[in-house]
Amino acid sequence: MATTAVTSAGIASEAPRSDFGRVLAQRERRFAAALLAPAFLALMATTTFPLLFLVYTSTFRMDLAMPFTNGFVGFENYQVLLSDERFWTSLLVSLVYTGSTVALQVVIGLALALLVMDMKRGQGWFRVIAILPVVLSPAVVGMIWRTFMLAPEFGIVDFLAINAGLGSKNWLGDPTLAMVSVIAIHTWQWTPFAFMVLLASLASLPEDIYEAARLDRASAWQRFRRITLPLLRPAIVMVIIMRTMVALTAFAAIFTVTAGGPGTATEILNLYAYRKSFTELSIGYGSALAVALLIVTIVISGILFAMRRAK
Amino acid sequence: MTAKRLRVFALLAISMVFLLAWAFPIIWSVLNSLKTDSDVLAYPPKLVFAPTLDAYRDVLFGSGSILPNLLSSAIISVGTTIVTMLMAVPAAYALARLRFRGKKFAGFYVLATQMLPPVGIIIPYFLVLRNIGWIDTYQGIILIYLSFSLPFAIWLLVSYFEDIPFEMEEAAYLDGASRLKTLWRIIIPQVRGGIAVTVVFVFLNAWNEFLFAVVLSGNTVRPVTVAMFNFVSVEQTLWAKLAAVSVLAMLPVVVLGVVAQKHIVKGLTVGAVKGGGRR
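Above: the input entities. Below: the structure tokens describing the complete assembly.
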């Protein structure tokens, strides 16, 4: 896709040879700088500066509850972090949460896109209904699930569980079930995203390859395995990358449902950094946790982008 | 023939299950918002009941009304949208159409800022805003919201700017129009549709935001996503009212989402599609 930008720049650039051309090019640069300046100043102020400030605060003890202990501590916060069991647990919870939600979204989303693609009527229903969860605030989604869906007995999920003979469960009170619940909620909200993107790219696949495959008597499975999947690969990888980044930074949907509990059963790294900073008011150590989160995000996105480039 | 009919039937059943699964939690919230508390808590759950608008009357006009919070959400979202668009439209135009050194880097920078985890930067925001007395103010929250709305809006707009033919600008320059005049008179009208879609998405994201709001808001500025918590306390949950507030919080984004339906995939995948090769 970078090619579009390259070609459009190419059209514009009849390399300035004359003085007149050079003056024009200089004017264009100045005009560009003037247009970019407000947005870039705002972006630097709201992203780059806070990032540097975060790294700086992570080298301090900064306890809002006990300000008299504050001071520069160098890398002490990071040393504490490496031997902090709660940190490693939260990292593991983050990875389980991200891995399972992304896998579920892609598998269900793809299966459903393939199914709907073959439908002659009713595709419109899917397109409209699929939008609903995606546009909602994760905070509101979390609240709805926590109450009307997962509450014991009158919550619909529990009602269904009782009628299925499983009995009433403590969906958010039991550590394992709480994890299953937050994963299910995230999957519920974001599978439509994978579904819509994959449906759109399925619809753009060339029809004639399938005709040829049918003439060659390729089975439905062969057509999927040999044609659809390779052609869809870029879209699938894109969905995986985007959903992974979002799942890694998810906050509201867990915060509203379990707040990381029971205990630390659903405490992803995000929530740990938040709780440490704003509940336990230990800002310096919270900053170190946030830096760790940043590093994890960079490492994982690095892996994913390498995967995208690899054939 | 029967095997085929069975297959069609199975597919229909599966699709109905999924449609229902996605729609149900929302429908159920709407139904619950029209019940009394005891109807909400009834077991087995009631599908048929005497609907009442009491919950809406209470949350809107009763004590602890959420009208100020809806207003807060509206001011934050509209403010963020206006400031974002004023900055993003010129920047996107420059990135899409002009030649200058460091253009590639500028594009990459915008994308990279989008990947910053919000939890990572909320701590500095809190410390700085507290120092300058901007906690619990509209200017504070709107400024911080630029961190996610700007990169998104710039990239979405770039994709629309790139679709306009170059001949239009060239013709205007030949007529002696200045660059700014050309941008304002010729280019902007061409991307009106793209600007409208971007406005929808920026508004939607600002309306839905939660983490920054929960840390940076207070008694004066408190959007509805945060105020919702007033209805679930440790002592008791106000079920019907909570349902009514949820529905009110969902209403604007659902309407906008359905209106912008055709553009939603593009809006959701922006950056990944356009900037994919550059990252």
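Note for the figure: Residues 277 and 283 of chain A are 5 Å apart (CA to CA).
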